[in-house]
Design goal:
mainly alpha
């Protein structure tokens, strides 16, 4: 998949590390860590943009459906993900 910018993707990786670090002491962060890790892997390794977008949307929906209080960092991460999705042809209006 196309990355928005390398710096943008590095910020996403940093947020994933934040979720991982916090998940060791608070299981509240585990779903966010797991999803962000999978999403970052898809962005880095998926060659088919359409398939990558669909996989990422499924992961985001899974997190949105959890009845957890989401950390503000998750919302920031999600904004970063949406920028990547737009870069790969996704439009929220479709």
């Amino acid at each position: 998949m196309k990355k928005y910018t390398q710096q943008h993707f590095e910020n996403m990786q940093m947020m994933c590390s934040y979720f991982e670090s916090n998940s060791k002491n608070n299981e509240f962060y585990l779903p966010e860590f797991t999803a962000s890790k999978k999403i970052n892997d898809i962005i880095e390794n998926e060659e088919n943009s359409f398939e990558g977008v669909m996989k990422i949307l499924e992961l985001l929906a899974e997190i949105d459906n959890l009845k957890l209080k989401k950390d503000v960092h998750w919302f920031d991460y999600k904004l970063h993900v949406l920028s990547v999705l737009r870069q790969n042809g996704f439009s929220e209006n479709e």
